[in-house]
Protein backbone atom coordinates (compact mmCIF):
# COMPACT_ATOMS: atom_id res chain seq x y z
CA UNK A 1 0.00 0.00 0.00
CA UNK A 2 1.40 3.36 -1.01
CA UNK A 3 1.61 6.15 1.54
CA UNK A 4 1.90 9.79 0.60
CA UNK A 5 4.29 11.71 2.81
CA UNK A 6 2.61 14.94 1.75
CA UNK A 7 -0.35 14.02 3.98
CA UNK A 8 -0.64 13.54 7.72
CA UNK A 9 0.36 10.20 9.20
CA UNK A 10 -2.99 8.67 10.16
CA UNK A 11 -1.51 6.20 12.60
CA UNK A 12 -0.99 8.77 15.35
CA UNK A 13 -4.37 8.70 17.04
CA UNK A 14 -5.80 11.83 18.70
CA UNK A 15 -4.29 12.46 22.12
CA UNK A 16 -6.68 12.48 25.06
CA UNK A 17 -4.28 14.80 26.93
CA UNK A 18 -5.37 13.57 30.35
CA UNK A 19 -2.50 13.26 32.80
CA UNK A 20 -2.51 11.88 36.31
CA UNK A 21 -1.82 14.27 39.16
CA UNK A 22 1.66 12.81 39.59
CA UNK A 23 2.60 12.75 35.92
CA UNK A 24 4.91 15.41 34.57
CA UNK A 25 3.68 15.04 31.02
CA UNK A 26 1.25 13.12 28.90
CA UNK A 27 3.74 10.98 27.00
CA UNK A 28 5.43 8.46 29.28
CA UNK A 29 8.45 6.26 28.68
CA UNK A 30 7.12 2.91 27.49
CA UNK A 31 10.08 0.60 28.13
CA UNK A 32 7.74 -2.40 28.30
CA UNK A 33 7.18 -2.02 24.55
CA UNK A 34 10.87 -2.32 23.59
CA UNK A 35 11.49 -5.38 21.43
CA UNK A 36 13.29 -6.61 18.34
CA UNK A 37 11.17 -6.68 15.20
CA UNK A 38 11.68 -8.29 11.79
CA UNK A 39 10.18 -5.81 9.33
CA UNK A 40 9.25 -5.89 5.68
CA UNK A 41 10.15 -2.93 3.47
CA UNK A 42 6.83 -1.67 2.10
CA UNK A 43 8.07 1.53 0.47
CA UNK A 44 11.50 3.08 -0.03
CA UNK A 45 12.16 6.10 -2.25
CA UNK A 46 14.00 9.36 -2.61
CA UNK A 47 12.30 12.52 -1.39
CA UNK A 48 14.97 14.84 -2.79
CA UNK A 49 18.69 14.67 -3.60
CA UNK A 50 19.68 13.92 0.02
CA UNK A 51 16.78 12.32 1.88
CA UNK A 52 14.96 9.00 1.52
CA UNK A 53 11.59 7.87 2.86
CA UNK A 54 11.36 4.35 4.31
CA UNK A 55 8.16 2.56 5.33
CA UNK A 56 8.45 -0.65 7.36
CA UNK A 57 5.81 -3.11 8.52
CA UNK A 58 6.10 -5.57 11.41
CA UNK A 59 3.74 -8.09 13.02
CA UNK A 60 3.71 -6.11 16.29
CA UNK A 61 1.57 -3.01 16.83
CA UNK A 62 4.35 -0.45 16.38
CA UNK A 63 1.87 2.37 15.76
CA UNK A 64 0.37 2.08 19.25
CA UNK A 65 3.74 1.56 20.97
CA UNK A 66 5.61 4.48 19.39
CA UNK A 67 5.39 8.04 20.77
CA UNK A 68 6.65 11.38 19.36
CA UNK A 69 10.37 11.85 19.96
CA UNK A 70 11.23 8.16 20.26
CA UNK A 71 13.61 6.28 18.00
CA UNK A 72 14.50 2.81 16.75
CA UNK A 73 17.85 1.10 16.32
CA UNK A 74 18.19 -0.18 12.76
CA UNK A 75 20.34 -3.08 11.55
CA UNK A 76 21.55 -1.70 8.24
CA UNK A 77 22.20 -4.24 5.48
CA UNK A 78 25.60 -5.13 4.11
CA UNK A 79 26.47 -4.39 0.49
CA UNK A 80 29.39 -5.46 -1.68
CA UNK A 81 31.50 -2.59 -0.29
CA UNK A 82 29.75 -1.60 2.97
CA UNK A 83 29.34 -3.67 6.14
CA UNK A 84 27.96 -1.49 8.97
CA UNK A 85 28.62 -3.20 12.30
CA UNK A 86 26.67 -1.14 14.84
CA UNK A 87 22.94 -0.54 14.75
CA UNK A 88 21.96 2.96 13.63
CA UNK A 89 19.56 5.11 15.72
CA UNK A 90 16.78 6.77 13.73
CA UNK A 91 13.90 8.94 14.91
CA UNK A 92 10.37 8.01 13.96
CA UNK A 93 8.83 10.13 11.22
CA UNK A 94 5.35 8.60 11.34
CA UNK A 95 3.29 5.48 12.05
CA UNK A 96 0.27 3.73 10.53
CA UNK A 97 -2.30 3.56 9.19
CA UNK A 98 -1.64 -0.18 9.62
CA UNK A 99 -0.90 -1.20 13.21
CA UNK A 100 2.52 -2.59 12.37
CA UNK A 101 3.74 0.30 10.24
CA UNK A 102 6.48 2.78 11.10
CA UNK A 103 7.88 5.50 8.81
CA UNK A 104 11.42 6.89 8.70
CA UNK A 105 12.94 9.85 6.87
CA UNK A 106 16.72 9.90 6.74
CA UNK A 107 19.70 11.72 5.27
CA UNK A 108 21.97 9.49 3.18
CA UNK A 109 25.32 10.63 4.53
CA UNK A 110 27.46 7.86 6.09
CA UNK A 111 28.29 4.18 5.65
CA UNK A 112 25.21 3.00 7.53
CA UNK A 113 22.68 5.14 5.70
CA UNK A 114 24.36 4.53 2.33
CA UNK A 115 23.97 0.80 2.94
CA UNK A 116 20.41 1.37 4.14
CA UNK A 117 19.62 3.27 0.96
CA UNK A 118 20.09 0.04 -1.04
CA UNK A 119 17.24 -1.78 0.71
CA UNK A 120 14.67 -2.90 -1.83
CA UNK A 121 10.89 -3.01 -1.45
CA UNK A 122 9.92 -6.49 -0.31
CA UNK A 123 13.17 -6.96 1.57
CA UNK A 124 13.56 -7.39 5.32
CA UNK A 125 15.28 -5.46 8.09
CA UNK A 126 15.58 -5.89 11.85
CA UNK A 127 14.85 -2.97 14.18
CA UNK A 128 14.84 -2.55 17.99
CA UNK A 129 12.54 -0.19 19.86
CA UNK A 130 10.76 2.04 20.47
CA UNK A 131 13.53 3.61 22.55
CA UNK A 132 13.95 6.78 24.60
CA UNK A 133 11.57 9.25 26.18
CA UNK A 134 9.13 11.61 24.49
CA UNK A 135 8.24 15.26 24.05
CA UNK A 136 6.08 16.92 26.71
CA UNK A 137 2.61 17.96 25.57
CA UNK A 138 0.36 19.18 28.38
CA UNK A 139 -3.44 19.58 28.44
CA UNK A 140 -3.42 23.35 28.87
CA UNK A 141 -1.16 24.22 25.95
CA UNK A 142 -2.61 26.80 23.55
CA UNK A 143 0.28 27.38 21.13
CA UNK A 144 3.64 25.74 20.60
CA UNK A 145 6.64 26.57 18.43
CA UNK A 146 8.89 24.11 16.61
CA UNK A 147 12.30 25.22 15.34
CA UNK A 148 13.70 22.53 13.09
CA UNK A 149 16.54 22.04 10.65
CA UNK A 150 17.47 19.18 8.34
CA UNK A 151 16.61 15.71 9.56
CA UNK A 152 15.30 17.33 12.76
CA UNK A 153 12.12 17.91 10.77
CA UNK A 154 11.47 14.16 10.76
CA UNK A 155 11.98 13.93 14.53
CA UNK A 156 9.31 16.53 15.29
CA UNK A 157 6.81 15.66 12.56
CA UNK A 158 4.85 13.27 14.86
CA UNK A 159 4.63 15.98 17.51
CA UNK A 160 2.83 18.26 15.05
CA UNK A 161 0.24 15.56 14.39
CA UNK A 162 -0.53 15.15 18.08
CA UNK A 163 -0.64 18.90 18.73
CA UNK A 164 -2.94 19.56 15.77
CA UNK A 165 -5.37 16.80 16.77
CA UNK A 166 -5.45 18.22 20.31
CA UNK A 167 -6.40 21.66 18.98
CA UNK A 168 -3.06 23.26 19.87
CA UNK A 169 -1.96 26.03 17.51
CA UNK A 170 1.46 25.68 15.92
CA UNK A 171 4.22 28.05 14.86
CA UNK A 172 6.87 26.39 12.71
CA UNK A 173 10.30 27.85 11.96
CA UNK A 174 12.00 25.67 9.34
CA UNK A 175 15.66 25.96 8.35
CA UNK A 176 17.44 24.39 5.38
CA UNK A 177 20.42 24.90 3.08
CA UNK A 178 18.27 25.87 0.10
CA UNK A 179 14.53 25.93 -0.72
CA UNK A 180 14.81 22.57 -2.49
CA UNK A 181 16.14 20.98 0.72
CA UNK A 182 13.34 22.30 2.94
CA UNK A 183 10.75 19.47 2.79
CA UNK A 184 7.96 21.75 4.02
CA UNK A 185 5.09 19.52 2.90
CA UNK A 186 6.80 16.41 4.23
CA UNK A 187 7.15 18.08 7.64
CA UNK A 188 3.64 19.50 7.97
CA UNK A 189 1.79 16.56 6.41
CA UNK A 190 -1.44 18.54 6.14
CA UNK A 191 -1.19 20.26 9.54
CA UNK A 192 -2.25 23.91 9.64
CA UNK A 193 0.57 26.06 11.04
CA UNK A 194 2.05 29.55 10.94
CA UNK A 195 5.16 28.69 8.92
CA UNK A 196 8.38 30.69 8.60
CA UNK A 197 11.12 29.34 6.31
CA UNK A 198 14.78 30.38 6.44
CA UNK A 199 17.73 29.34 4.28
CA UNK A 200 21.52 29.28 4.23
CA UNK A 201 21.47 30.35 0.58
CA UNK A 202 20.09 33.83 1.35
CA UNK A 203 21.52 34.27 4.85
CA UNK A 204 18.13 34.20 6.56
CA UNK A 205 19.12 31.08 8.55
CA UNK A 206 22.04 32.70 10.35
CA UNK A 207 21.74 32.43 14.13
CA UNK A 208 21.45 36.22 14.38
CA UNK A 209 18.60 36.38 11.86
CA UNK A 210 16.84 33.39 13.41
CA UNK A 211 17.10 34.90 16.89
CA UNK A 212 15.42 38.09 15.66
CA UNK A 213 12.66 36.05 14.02
CA UNK A 214 12.00 33.80 17.03
CA UNK A 215 12.18 36.72 19.45
CA UNK A 216 9.62 38.64 17.36
CA UNK A 217 7.27 35.64 17.22
CA UNK A 218 7.49 34.96 20.96
CA UNK A 219 6.96 38.62 21.72
CA UNK A 220 3.90 38.87 19.49
CA UNK A 221 2.04 35.92 21.04
CA UNK A 222 2.63 33.64 24.01
CA UNK A 223 3.95 30.17 23.24
CA UNK A 224 3.82 27.48 25.92
CA UNK A 225 6.86 25.56 24.65
CA UNK A 226 9.57 25.87 22.02
CA UNK A 227 10.77 22.53 20.64
CA UNK A 228 13.91 22.13 18.56
CA UNK A 229 16.04 19.51 16.85
CA UNK A 230 18.69 19.40 14.14
CA UNK A 231 21.16 22.19 14.95
CA UNK A 232 23.45 22.69 17.95
CA UNK A 233 24.01 26.37 17.15
CA UNK A 234 20.26 27.01 17.06
CA UNK A 235 19.87 25.09 20.31
CA UNK A 236 22.44 27.19 22.17
CA UNK A 237 20.98 30.44 20.84
CA UNK A 238 17.48 29.36 21.93
CA UNK A 239 18.83 28.57 25.37
CA UNK A 240 19.97 32.17 25.80
CA UNK A 241 16.89 33.65 24.12
CA UNK A 242 14.38 31.78 26.28
CA UNK A 243 15.83 33.36 29.43
CA UNK A 244 13.96 36.50 28.32
CA UNK A 245 10.68 34.53 28.10
CA UNK A 246 10.34 32.79 31.50
CA UNK A 247 6.77 31.73 30.74
CA UNK A 248 7.91 29.64 27.76
CA UNK A 249 9.58 26.29 28.28
CA UNK A 250 12.04 24.74 25.87
CA UNK A 251 12.70 21.14 24.82
CA UNK A 252 15.30 19.64 22.50
CA UNK A 253 15.56 16.21 20.92
CA UNK A 254 19.31 15.62 21.09
CA UNK A 255 21.22 14.05 18.23
CA UNK A 256 24.15 11.91 19.38
CA UNK A 257 26.23 9.00 18.13
CA UNK A 258 25.12 5.77 19.84
CA UNK A 259 26.09 2.12 20.02
CA UNK A 260 23.68 0.01 22.09
CA UNK A 261 20.84 2.56 22.26
CA UNK A 262 19.73 1.21 25.66
CA UNK A 263 22.05 2.96 28.12
CA UNK A 264 24.53 0.13 28.71
CA UNK A 265 27.59 1.17 26.70
CA UNK A 266 27.62 4.85 27.81
CA UNK A 267 28.85 5.98 24.40
CA UNK A 268 26.15 8.66 24.05
CA UNK A 269 26.62 10.57 27.32
CA UNK A 270 26.31 14.36 27.28
CA UNK A 271 26.84 16.91 30.04
CA UNK A 272 23.73 18.54 31.50
CA UNK A 273 23.13 21.08 34.24
CA UNK A 274 20.39 19.91 36.63
CA UNK A 275 19.69 22.77 39.05
CA UNK A 276 23.36 23.72 39.23
CA UNK A 277 24.59 20.13 39.47
CA UNK A 278 26.58 19.03 36.42
CA UNK A 279 25.66 15.49 35.38
CA UNK A 280 26.50 13.19 32.50
CA UNK A 281 23.30 11.67 31.15
CA UNK A 282 22.71 9.07 28.46
CA UNK A 283 20.97 10.54 25.43
CA UNK A 284 19.51 7.14 24.54
CA UNK A 285 18.12 6.42 28.01
CA UNK A 286 17.46 9.66 29.90
CA UNK A 287 16.72 11.30 26.54
CA UNK A 288 16.70 11.93 23.68
CA UNK A 289 14.36 14.75 24.77
CA UNK A 290 15.73 17.18 27.38
CA UNK A 291 14.87 20.66 28.68
CA UNK A 292 16.77 23.21 26.61
CA UNK A 293 17.86 24.96 29.80
CA UNK A 294 19.70 21.83 31.00
CA UNK A 295 22.00 21.42 28.00
CA UNK A 296 25.66 22.30 28.46
CA UNK A 297 27.69 23.36 25.41
CA UNK A 298 30.37 21.21 23.81
CA UNK A 299 32.76 19.74 26.38
CA UNK A 300 36.45 19.08 25.74
CA UNK A 301 38.13 16.22 27.58
CA UNK A 302 41.81 15.93 28.26
TrEMBL record:
Question: Where is FAD bound in this sequence?
Answer: 88-91, 112-113
Keywords assigned by UniProt?
Answer: 2Fe-2S, Electron transport, FAD, Flavoprotein, Iron, Iron-sulfur, Metal-binding, Transport
SUPFAM superfamilies membership: Ferredoxin reductase-like, C-terminal NADP-linked domain, Riboflavin synthase domain-like
GO MF terms listed in the record are:
2 iron, 2 sulfur cluster binding; flavin adenine dinucleotide binding; metal ion binding; oxidoreductase activity
Q: Which ranges carry the FAD-binding FR-type domain?
A: 34-137
Which cofactors does this gene product need? [2Fe-2S] cluster; FAD
Entry note: cofactor: Binds 1 FAD per subunit. Binds 1 [2Fe-2S] cluster per subunit.
Annotated GO biological processes are: pyrimidine nucleotide biosynthetic process
| TM segment ranges | none
Cited InterPro entries: Cyt_c3_hydrogenase_gsu, Dihydroorotate_DH_ele_sf, Dihydroorotate_DH_Fe-S-bd, FAD-bd_FR_type, FNR_nucleotide-bd, PyrK_electron_transfer, Riboflavin_synthase-like_b-brl
What Pfam families has UniProt attached to this entry?
Answer: DHODB_Fe-S_bind
Q: Its domain of life?
A: Bacteria
Which positions does UniProt annotate for [2Fe-2S] cluster binding?
Answer: 260, 265, 268, 284
Q: Which family does it belong to?
A: Belongs to the PyrK family.
Protein name (record): Dihydroorotate dehydrogenase B (NAD(+)), electron transfer subunit
Q: Which organism is it from?
A: Variovorax paradoxus
Amino acid sequence: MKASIEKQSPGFAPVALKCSSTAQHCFQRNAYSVASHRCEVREHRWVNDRYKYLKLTAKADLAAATKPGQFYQLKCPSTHDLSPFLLRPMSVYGVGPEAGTVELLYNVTGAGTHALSHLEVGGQMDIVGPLGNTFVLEPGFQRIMVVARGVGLATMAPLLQHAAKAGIRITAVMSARTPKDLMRDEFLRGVDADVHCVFDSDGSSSVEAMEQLVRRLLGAEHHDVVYTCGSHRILMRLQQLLKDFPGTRGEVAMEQRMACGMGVCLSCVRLFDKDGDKKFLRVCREGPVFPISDVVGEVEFG
